[in-house]
Structures are given as structure tokens and as C-alpha cells.
Protein 1
Amino acid sequence: MMNKVSRTWRRAAWAMVLICLPFLSFTVSAAWEELSEEELERILVEKFEAGNYSAKGADNCLMCHRRSDTVMALFSGVHGRTANPASPMAAGQLQCEACHGPMGNHNRGGKEPMITFGPDSRVSASAQNSVCLSCHSGDDRLAWHGSTHDIEEVACASCHNVHAEHDPSRDKRLAMENCTDCHRQQLAQMHQRSAHPMRSGQITCVDCHNPHGSLNEAMLTQISVNDNCYVCHAEKRGPVLWEHAPVVDNCANCHNPHGSVNEAMLTQRAPQLCQSCHASPHSGTPLFNSGDSAFTAGQSCLNCHNQVHGSNHPSGKLLQR
Ligand code: HEC
Ligand code: HEC
Ligand code: HEC
Ligand code: HEC
Ligand code: HEC
Ligand code: HEC
Ligand code: HEC
Ligand code: HEC
Ligand code: HEC
Ligand code: HEC
């Protein structure tokens, strides 16, 4: 009799444990949080090599993960569109495991890690990115390897969101907010007195930069700073009869394209700007450099040398006409 009661109790207790198990495992933090980053990555690499993919694809994962709104949002974005045969979720594709890697023994109570993405992930950015690049290495990302963002370990998922209806990169302003989350100096500059119309979103960072890297300086979209500016300021391209050497060399000698406290985004105001190169113009005649004279006041040097970008006038050698 005693025996029977305790057996019933034991059965009931087991049943309770079994019922609660999935809930327990969801509230308990993931077992792999204890692992060092090296250990975690080693396990993930081993799992990839073993290639133990789930036979049921996404259905298997969703048994445990469908309660997360984040997870389910995948199906409203491009990666969840089964109609596109190249989509990871299409029939015959690896589905969730195309990105998160083979399931292995992860379904045994979530004890084995899966690859996670984004700024909070403990998997190195280059390992995360290799997953995305397995489908996206073409076209626009040919220069990703060796780019500053690659070297600085910026993850694709720091800018992109795949479990979402709309990727932030689709919206120019959202994309720019994303850039300025990390680039605080440019954020400050674009709010200064004179700046490209970035605050309104008319021009954004990606009009000049390729966030995936380029073969050019500062990940610019064009081969040089000047070529970048000519895309929109074609009238400055020339050729002109009388060139001003620093203009031909680099517009950024005088302008900060992100913005400045000085008008026309000048890095300094005249006459200091001019004098940073022309230490003592007019053969150093004091008249020309003294305090408030006609030469340094107001528009300063530009009062006379007003064709600072170069002149087409036959006698414009001194950039005065
Ligand atoms: C038997 C239940 C179960 C199954 C099946 C399962 N998971 Fe998990 N998964 C968990 C648990 C438990 C955790 C750890 C707690 C958490 O973070 O939700 C977890 C964590 C994760 C994480 C890490 C989340 C984070 O924020 O750290 C990812 C990614 C993940 N699972 C993906 C998958 C994928 C992809 C599949 C299918 C191939 C899958 N899971 C199948 C239970 C499961
Ligand atoms: C195209 C690659 C890709 C596919 C396919 C994919 N994921 Fe993810 N998953 C990510 C990325 C990237 C993140 C980080 C969050 C983000 O960027 O949206 C993530 C985050 C997660 C998380 C953590 C979410 C949280 O709550 O913070 C879980 C769990 C997860 N994915 C499970 C799944 C499951 C289950 C599937 C299949 C239904 C799946 N993923 C399909 C790339 C993918
Ligand atoms: C199995 C292949 C595959 C993998 C892995 C993959 N993608 Fe994609 N991705 C696609 C396909 C297919 C599209 C849709 C392309 C199209 O419609 O032209 C796409 C589209 C995109 C887009 C454009 C989004 C839009 O709204 O148009 C972005 C951004 C993107 N992927 C980022 C990522 C990131 C980040 C990862 C890694 C976390 C990743 N992808 C992993 C196949 C993949
Ligand atoms: C610094 C932020 C940033 C990072 C990091 C980044 N992207 Fe992008 N990505 C963008 C922006 C912004 C766009 C939109 C570009 C545009 O409008 O010209 C974009 C567009 C895309 C597109 C859609 C357009 C196309 O070229 O097909 C894909 C796919 C994509 N990125 C994949 C990736 C992958 C894969 C990685 C990692 C190797 C990555 N991105 C890293 C910001 C980023
Ligand atoms: C997760 C942080 C992060 C995000 C988001 C990010 N960047 Fe960066 N970026 C960096 C780091 C780190 C560097 C290297 C240090 C520096 O130059 O500030 C860098 C460097 C750069 C450089 C200089 C490249 C060079 O070779 O000199 C440019 C240009 C740039 N980022 C543009 C962008 C644009 C455009 C976006 C948005 C589409 C963006 N970044 C988003 C972290 C980020
Ligand atoms: C009108 C074109 C243009 C726009 C718009 C632009 N940049 Fe730049 N950016 C440049 C040029 C040109 C350089 C190189 C400057 C140099 O050589 O001195 C540069 C350089 C950089 C650098 C390298 C560090 C530095 O200052 O030299 C970073 C980081 C950067 N830009 C980020 C951004 C971010 C973030 C945005 C958007 C908020 C942005 N840029 C918008 C043209 C632009
Ligand atoms: C994508 C187009 C685009 C590119 C590329 C571009 N600009 Fe501009 N720029 C504009 C627009 C639009 C304005 C604002 C014109 C207006 O308000 O009338 C502007 C205005 C300016 C002004 C005048 C600002 C003022 O306050 O009067 C300067 C100086 C300037 N740009 C320099 C540059 C330089 C230097 C580069 C290259 C690094 C560059 N721009 C690249 C579109 C561009
Ligand atoms: C030697 C310094 C210097 C260099 C280099 C320079 N600028 Fe300027 N820029 C100025 C000054 C000073 C002004 C304001 C006075 C004026 O309006 O001419 C100005 C004004 C501008 C303006 C607004 C007024 C206008 O003329 O449309 C634009 C746009 C501009 N620069 C573009 C460029 C571009 C593009 C380059 C490179 C091809 C460049 N600048 C190189 C000094 C320079
Ligand atoms: C980055 C350096 C630099 C800056 C800034 C600069 N210049 Fe120049 N400037 C030069 C160089 C180099 C020459 C060519 C000198 C030569 O050929 O002997 C030149 C030539 C000139 C000439 C023609 C002189 C001649 O003998 O042909 C004038 C006038 C002139 N600059 C005025 C200005 C004014 C005004 C400013 C300020 C708006 C200015 N410069 C800013 C470097 C600069
Ligand atoms: C009132 C008109 C006027 C103003 C203001 C002026 N200049 Fe001149 N500048 C001239 C004239 C005229 C010449 C040619 C005669 C000469 O060489 O003295 C000249 C010649 C030059 C030359 C070429 C010859 C040389 O001496 O190097 C440079 C460079 C120059 N100016 C730079 C500047 C700078 C920089 C400023 C501002 C600090 C400035 N100028 C202000 C009228 C002016």
C-alpha cells in the first residue's frame, strides 16, 4: 500500500518535471553562456564539420522557438519568402540552419549552442559574416574582405536585421541612424552650421561611402575624393584655364564633407584657411596681412581672389576673375 502511494507520487512528480521541462529550459539562461569565446567557436566549427542537419528543417526549430515574435518576423521579410527558390526558407534549402548552422544536439533541451548574430553575439564577427557571405559575396560586397569594417570586426547583423519585415538598410534615414550610432563625430558634424542636407535625409552616408568597403580611400564609392564630389558638383570638375592646385588635388583640403561650424563647410575660415598654405602672400607685405585691413576683413582674401576653385578668364591667373 505504502509502496503504491509513493510510486504514484513519483509518477506524478516525473510528469510535472516533463511538463515543465520546456518552460524551465526557456527561462534558464543558455548553457553555453559559461563557455569562453574560443571554446564556443570551436564547438560551432565542429558542429559545422559534422553537418548534422535536422531532417524536418524549420518545423523542428519552431517546435521550441515559435513563441518568439522576433523569430516569427523572419517570415515577413525576404529571407522567409518561400516563393524565391534562393531564399534560405525555400523547399530544399537548409532553412533556419542555413544561417544558424546544423542543429546537432541543440534540440536536447537547448544545451548545444547555435550561431547567434549581431552586436550581442559572442561569436566573432568574421565567423558570423562568413555565413551571410556564403550567399552574398557577389556584386556590392566584392571588396568586403580587407575593408575597414571587416578589419574592425563589424558584423553584417550590426547593420542588417533579417528577422524583420523591412531591413533597416532599405530606408536611407534608418541606415544613416545606424551609421551614426557608431560614428559620433560625423553625427556631431552633420548638425553643425553648414552641412550637406543629411539631417533631412536628402543625402546620406551611402551617397559617398560604400559600407561594404571599396577599393578607394575611406570606402568612398568613387576612385578619389574629387571624383566623389563631381558626381553632384559637376561644375567643379573643370578643366579650367587657371587651376588652383589644392582644388585639383583634393576638395577636402578646404572642405569637410560631413559639416563644419564655418560657412560652405570650410575646415577653417579665410584668411586662416588661405594662410595655412600661403604663409606670407604678397611677398609678406605687412599691409596684406594686418588685422582688420581690407585684405583680411569680411570675405577676406576672397574679396579679391574670388575664383578660388579656378578661373577661366584669360587674365585670371591670380584667381581674381
Ligand atoms: C527542444 C527545443 C529546441 C529546439 C528544437 C531548438 N531550440 Fe534553439 N534554443 C532552445 C533553448 C532552450 C535555447 C536557449 C534559451 C533561449 O535563448 O531561448 C535555444 C537557443 C537558440 C538560439 C540562441 C538564442 C540566443 O538569444 O542566444 C538560437 C539561434 C537557436 N536556439 C536556434 C535554433 C534553431 C535554428 C533550431 C532548429 C534547427 C533550434 N534552435 C531548435 C531550444 C530549442
Ligand atoms: C538569413 C539568415 C537567418 C535565417 C534563415 C534565420 N535566422 Fe535566426 N537570426 C539571424 C540573425 C542575423 C539574428 C540576429 C537578429 C537579427 O538580425 O534579426 C537571428 C536571431 C535569432 C534568434 C535570437 C532571437 C532573439 O529573440 O533575440 C533565434 C532564436 C533565431 N534567430 C532562430 C531562428 C529560427 C528558428 C529560424 C528559422 C525559422 C531562423 N532563426 C532563421 C539569422 C537568420
Ligand atoms: C541561403 C542564402 C542566404 C543566406 C545564408 C543569407 N541570405 Fe540574405 N538574402 C538571400 C536572398 C535569396 C535574398 C533576397 C534577394 C533578392 O530578393 O534579390 C536576400 C536578401 C538580403 C538582403 C536584402 C534585404 C531586402 O530587404 O531586400 C540583405 C540586407 C541580406 N540578405 C542580408 C543577409 C545577412 C546579414 C545574412 C547573414 C545573417 C544573410 N543575408 C544570409 C539569401 C541569403
Ligand atoms: C556598416 C553597415 C553595414 C554593414 C556592416 C553591412 N551592410 Fe549590407 N548594406 C548596408 C546598407 C546601408 C545597405 C543599403 C545600400 C544602399 O542603399 O546603397 C546595404 C545593402 C545590403 C544588401 C542589399 C543590396 C545588395 O547589395 O544586394 C545586402 C544583400 C547586404 N547589404 C549584405 C551585407 C552582408 C552580407 C554584410 C556582411 C558581410 C553586410 N551587408 C554588411 C549597410 C551595411
Ligand atoms: C558597429 C559600429 C559601426 C557601424 C554601425 C558603422 N561603422 Fe563605420 N566604422 C566602424 C569602425 C570601428 C571604423 C574604424 C574606425 C573609424 O574610422 O572610425 C569604421 C570606419 C568607417 C569609415 C572609414 C573607412 C576608412 O577606411 O577610413 C567609413 C567611411 C565608415 N566607417 C562608414 C560607415 C557607414 C557609411 C556606416 C553606415 C552605413 C557605418 N560606417 C556604420 C564601425 C561602425
Ligand atoms: C558628401 C560626401 C560624404 C558624405 C555624405 C559622408 N561622407 Fe564620410 N567622408 C567623405 C570623404 C570625402 C571622406 C574622406 C575625407 C578626407 O580624405 O579627409 C570621408 C571620411 C569618412 C570617415 C573616415 C574618417 C574621416 O573623417 O576622415 C568616416 C568614418 C566617415 N566618412 C563616415 C561617414 C558617415 C558616418 C557619414 C554619414 C553620417 C558620412 N561619412 C557621410 C565623404 C562623405
Ligand atoms: C550626392 C550628391 C552630393 C555629393 C556626392 C557631394 N555633394 Fe556637396 N552638396 C550637395 C547638395 C545637394 C548640396 C546643397 C546644395 C544647396 O543647398 O543648394 C551640397 C552643397 C555643398 C557645399 C555648399 C555648402 C554650403 O553651406 O553652401 C559644399 C562646399 C559642398 N557641397 C562640397 C562638397 C564636397 C567637397 C563633396 C565631395 C567630398 C561633395 N560636396 C559631394 C550634394 C552633393
Ligand atoms: C583652396 C580651398 C578650397 C578647395 C580646395 C575647394 N574649395 Fe570649394 N570653396 C572654397 C571656399 C573659400 C568657398 C566659399 C567661397 C565661395 O563661394 O567661393 C567654397 C565654396 C564651395 C561650394 C559652394 C559655393 C559654390 O561655389 O557652389 C561648393 C559646392 C564647393 N566649394 C565645392 C568644392 C569642390 C567640389 C571642391 C573640389 C573639386 C572644392 N570645393 C575645393 C574653398 C575651396
Ligand atoms: C592646401 C594649400 C592651399 C590652400 C588652403 C590655399 N591655397 Fe592657394 N595655392 C596653393 C598652391 C600650392 C598654389 C600654387 C602655387 C604655385 O603655383 O606657385 C596656390 C595658388 C594660389 C594663387 C595663385 C598664385 C600664383 O602665383 O599663381 C592664389 C591667388 C591663391 N592660391 C589664393 C588662395 C586663397 C585666396 C586661398 C584661401 C581661400 C588659398 N589660396 C588657399 C595652395 C593652397
Ligand atoms: C585687395 C585685394 C587683395 C586681397 C584682399 C588679397 N590679395 Fe592676394 N593679391 C592681390 C593682387 C592684386 C595680387 C597680385 C599683385 C601682388 O603680387 O602683390 C595678389 C597676389 C597674391 C598671390 C600670388 C603672389 C604672391 O605674392 O604670392 C597670392 C598667393 C595671394 N595674393 C594670396 C592672398 C591671400 C592668402 C590673401 C588673404 C590673406 C590675399 N591674397 C588677399 C590682391 C589681393
Protein 2
Amino acid sequence: MQVSTKSSVKSASVVHVGLDDTDSTQGKCTTHAAYRITDYLLNNKSIEFVDYPLLIRLNPNIPWKTRGNGAVCLRFRTSHHEDVLDRIMDLVHKENLVATGANPGIAVFCGETIPYSIQCFARKALYDVVSRKTAEDLAARHQIRFFIDGNGQGLVGSMAAIGTLLHEDHTFEAVAYRKQERCGTVRRLDSAKVVQLDAETFPYTFNNYDKAHHRVLILPHGPDPVFCGIRGESAEVVSFALGNLQISEELEGHMVFRTNQGTNQHLQNEVGFTDIKCYTAGFSQCKVDSRPTVIEGGHALFSVRDSSGAVVNAAVYEPTDMVNFASKLEVGDVIKIGFGVRKPSSKHLRTLNIEYLQVLVANEIFETANPICIICKKRMKSEGTNKGFRCRKCGLRNRDAKKILIPKTRMIQTNLIVPTPKAHRHLTKPIHRYGIEKNMENTLEIKMWSPWFSKNLGLAEDY
Ligand SMILES: [Zn+2]
């Protein structure tokens, strides 16, 4: 069965529900709250989903985020849109979907198209710091009803999720949820199955397993209700891969999200170094201004200069496995970097945390050497400052000879360098995805593949 956006629900409007920050360090998960709300909505005959649930990862440099800084948007058509927020809130309270200590935001917008100002707000929330006040003003201007609790910071993410259409590059993730009584217990999964899954489905699924470090990447480790998540290029492939894992634990179900994970969507804006803001993200084409030094802990520190001459510190951290490469940089190398801006502290200056690195032009570097004797072709010896050189073999003296410059062979690659999979952030674009980015410009209508949602998962026959 395929569901298109053409509605059979008469005179219906599209409702966009944004959801953020229902989780805390104590547990729960915003995507799981979205799963329960989706279950409720799918049981209602007058509701028709027009897109997969979107899982939007926002600026990962925000220090007050919970875990992955992920917000969710659910888009569906219904003729009963007036009381959607009240019905969702009833469910949230009844099923206790918000964690203690969370700062949830749930917002509801009705309309066929998303206003441009909300789309701009969403774009900014990917790489910048946006305030709750801006989100509240925007909600008031567009008659958006919302619920907030705690410090209300969740409104920012819920509004940003509503404003994200994800018409550009995107990926999918099939997330499997545990039954409540299993939350907090060890997740049991045969890692050989994950290795096999990775071998059979790569590059259509990715970041299942870090081969270099023998680490399974699909299982979270906290008390939250996520059993595992499989990331990939289509709803079909991630669902099939999940079904083929033969998970022995009985699960609550699964849901496929369309997401900006693995797209570098937070690194799309070019940033100058003059007025660089803490916690923002972006990219720059710049020059190496000081040679990297590798400090205790294995991190590489150096400085970079932009075209205006502004200089800022930069760091490549050990867990990324990029230090060996970065340590070969030389002053004057033209590089392209993606980064997040770390706040200065008493111990370090404001620093760019590098998320990818490419040498565009390797600067020619030289070493100096003594001149060569024209008679015996041996290197001469210095007679002292400004006193010229003398050949030790034949005794030839040359008072005017100068040191010579010999070009040094550079052992640096010019291909793009990204962190090893285990150090990836949700938004980090894996190296194999460069060149296969999606673009929906010509296909705004989303064809949904029906098994994107299931209950009581755990049997392969479900697929
Ligand atoms: Zn000589």
C-alpha cells in the first residue's frame, strides 16, 4: 500500500506537530513520545500522514541540550484539527511521556504551507543559538498553539521541527522501542548479526558498526526506551535491515523517521572569524596560521587565518582519529574545515572544534642546507655568520655562497578527512555519503512506504 499526500479526508487541513525535549538524563526519549502519539493518531480513521515523522537534529553545540538535541515533527491531514493539541496533551499526561526534569515543548501549526519566517527560524536553529522568546513571538504571530514546561526551552526545538521541510538531503532511521519493563536492562544483540547486516546493506545503511574499533553503533546505552536504531538511505532498507536482525527481545514496536542525520546540515553556512559566536557551527576556507602541536591526550592544536586576516584557534580531538592527518599541516596550507565554536574558559581560548578537514592547496615548504662544492659536489661547511663556506675535501672557499632552499616532499593527502564512525555526531556526514546527497526539488510529494510503523515487533514475519 502506498499513501500519497492526496487526501481522501474531506476538507482537511495539514496539521504539523512539533515535539522537543520530553526526555531528560533520567530517561524517556522524544522519539518514543512521538511513537506513542503516532500510534494514537494512526488509530484515528480521520487522520492521514502526509510525511514520515521527521527527526531533526539541531545545533549539536548547544550546551543545554539533552543528549542528541533531536526534535520531531509529525505531519498529517485531518478535518478535526481544532483540538489536536488538547488530545495530544491528554495522551502525554495519561501515558506519562515526559521525563522528570525535562523541558518539553509541544507545538501545533495548521496550514498547507509552512510560513517562510518559521522556515528561517528552523534553519538558524541548526547552527546558531536561538532564544525561547523568538520562538514564542513566532508562535504568537502564526496562531501556533503550544504547551511548554520546565524552562520552556523545548519550544525552540518544536518550532524548529515544524519549520524544517527536509526537501534537501536527508536519510532515514528505523528506531525499535523496548517494552517499558525492559527499560534499564542490558540490550542483548549478537554483534555478529550487526557485522553481517552492515556487510549486506552498506552503503544503503550506515554507521552500524565501527570496523576499526570493533564497536556496535546501533545500540544506545542509557535507560531510555530505544532498543536500537538503523540509519540508511530509504525507509524500505532500514525497515528490512531491522527485521533481519532477529532481535530476541520482545519489543514495543518500531517507527521509521525521515531525518537530517548524516547530512552535515549544521555546517552549511560559511563563517568569518572576526565576530565568531560561541556555540555556533559552520565551515570556512582558511589558511593554517601556526603548525599543529599534539598535546597530552593526543589532541592537535593550531591556529587558522581567514581571508580578512582574523586568526582563531582550532583543535582536532583524539577520538576523531584525524590527529595523525592534522599534525602534518604546515603554515600557509589552504584548508576547508567544518567546525563548532567552543566557548573560551580559564584554560583555553575560544576554539574551533573541527568536524571535517580537507587540504585544498598544500603550501610548498623548504628546508635550508649548505651549498654544494662545485668541484667535488659535496656539501660545504659554514665558516661562521656572513663568512661564507668552505669545502672540507678540496678546501675550496666561497665567501659569497649562501644557504640553499630544498623543497620538502609533503606527505599530506588532499582528500576529505572525517571522524571515525564511533566519533560521529548524529549530523556528521559519513565519507561515503559525499556525492549521493538527495534532492527533492522535483518530487515534493512523499510516497510513504506502508510498513513504516509497527507494534509488537520481534518477529521477522512482520516484514
Ligand atoms: Zn670541494
